[in-house]
């Protein structure tokens, strides 16, 4: 599904060139659940933004579902993102002036889906995530855990082939965190490919494989297969 070769990203300022990703190679098969770990500043979130096609300022080669992402322009990358990718942000990024149902409709509205079909998909997501009774509420009327649940529902409402998650439980307590991770595990069993960035070894254990990144490089000796029971 994903192949990265020699992905490099750097910033240039008065002090010179600052490399944040240094020759990243990565292969992810469809249906995998991969966790990426590493200290702050190691390049985890930047790599996730590149995978999600939000960031185009990098060097190297990126194949996604046989599309040559490195050969696409900004508009083409955005279309690929809208069609295939869901993203769960650490800070939720819900729109405060929209209800839960309206927040779920946003990613569908970008995909030329008829209104009647969008309404059906939103209704299904509300039911699946146990939020039918909260569909008319606004984000500020929900707890942090429920807001993150809405954010996950929004990311998967369009059945993306790839789900990317950046510290998806960073603002939640342990019970809420477990709920989100068990939901990810269920989505993965149903066929969604998942790549998450996390500082938590417990959360990383929900994946099938963990990659450690340090100073913009993967540490090959630290790639391993998880054996957590499902």
Features:
alpha/beta; seven-stranded mixed sheet; four-stranded antiparallel sheet; 230 residues; Rossmann fold
Query: How would you state the average pLDDT, rounded?
Result: 90
Q: What is the CATH superfamily label?
A: P-loop containing nucleotide triphosphate hydrolases
What's the main sheet like?
7 strands, mixed
Taken in chain order, the helices and strands follow as: EEEHEEHEHHHEHEHEEE
Strand content: 25-35%
> Can you tell me the CATH topology?
Rossmann fold
- Shape descriptor: globular
Helical coverage, percent range: 25-40%
Structural class: alpha/beta
Number of strands: 11
Assembly state here? single chain
CATH class descriptor name: Alpha Beta
Distance between the first and last residues' Cα: 23 Å
* CATH architecture classification name: 3-Layer(aba) Sandwich
CA-based gyration radius = 18 Å
What is the count of structural domains? 1
User: How many DSSP H or I helices?
Assistant: 7
Spans of 5+ residues with little confidence (pLDDT < 50)?
Answer: 222-230
SSE blueprint and pairings:
Elements: E1 2-13, E2 16-28, E3 33-37, H1 44-51, E4 59-64, E5 67-68, H2 74-84, E6 85-88, H3 100-109, H4 115-128, H5 144-156, E7 162-166, H6 174-189, E8 193-197, H7 201-204, E9 209-214, E10 217-218, E11 224-225
Parallel strand pairs: 3-8, 3-9, 6-7, 7-8
Antiparallel strand pairs: 1-2, 1-4, 4-5, 9-10, 9-11
Helix pairs in contact: 3-4, 3-5
